[in-house]
Design goal:
This protein is an alpha/beta fold and about 210 residues long. It is built from 6 helices and 6 strands; from the N terminus they run βααβαβαβααββ.
């Protein structure tokens, strides 16, 4: 079945202490830190401004989030920028981050490449690498394509870096090696439309 991707606005959750420390986080439920909360607030204002710029009604969009605490809080903070409140959020477990299994909590720097290659050091074989009790990118791809088949129109999604990597691959057609070595931003709103990705940084001066 070919997926007809609708327009998507995607926001990665804000920073956590594990992000700041360079730890593999995966499916572990780690909360936002102060920086992450500020990022989520700024992303909400940016999303509101982008929709207003294009005279779009937030009510036109379905709103989805991963159910982990860091994404729930990010979504809550994003929605505070809107008045009236947008449609209710669907929390979908298929949007949870790729699981790193027994390696979750380990620092990127303490694991040698033959055990777990860090972003920027990954080759094509990493796509199929599955840590003990974890997932690989094929597993994540099956989850995300299953989720996508239920999308019926424009949507706002708050989820994780691995999910954003997968959307780049599936929607934009970016290569596997490119996306697994990409560092998805936490201070930006990412727009997918007609097979193209546009990244709008929340921290830059915007005149559009």
């Amino acid at each position: 079945m070919t997926i007809q991707w609708p327009e998507l606005f995607f926001i990665r959750h804000g920073q956590t202490d594990w992000n700041a420390e360079g730890r593999y986080q995966g499916a572990r439920d780690i909360p936002l830190n102060l920086t992450g909360r500020a990022q989520a607030d700024a992303n909400g204002v940016l999303l509101r401004d982008l929709l207003a710029r294009d005279t779009r009604d937030p009510g036109e969009f379905a709103w989805y989030s991963s159910p982990l605490d860091r994404t729930r809080e990010t979504m809550l903070r994003v929605r505070r920028a809107f008045d009236p409140e947008p449609p209710s959020v669907t929390y979908d477990p298929r949007l949870i981050e790729i699981s790193f299994g027994e390696l979750e909590g380990c620092l990127h720097s303490e694991l040698p490449p033959h055990i777990m290659a860090a972003p920027g050091e990954r080759d094509a074989a990493f796509w199929s690498f599955r840590p003990e009790k974890g997932e690989n990118y094929d597993d994540l791809m099956h989850r995300i394509t299953d989720f996508a088949r239920e999308l019926t129109g424009p949507s706002v999604i708050v989820a994780h870096g691995g999910v954003l990597r997968m959307l780049r691959h599936l929607i934009e057609g970016a290569g596997r090696v490119e996306v697994i070595n990409w560092f998805p931003p936490q201070d930006a709103v990412v727009h997918f439309n007609s097979g193209r990705m546009t990244v709008y940084p929340a921290t830059s001066n915007r005149d559009d």
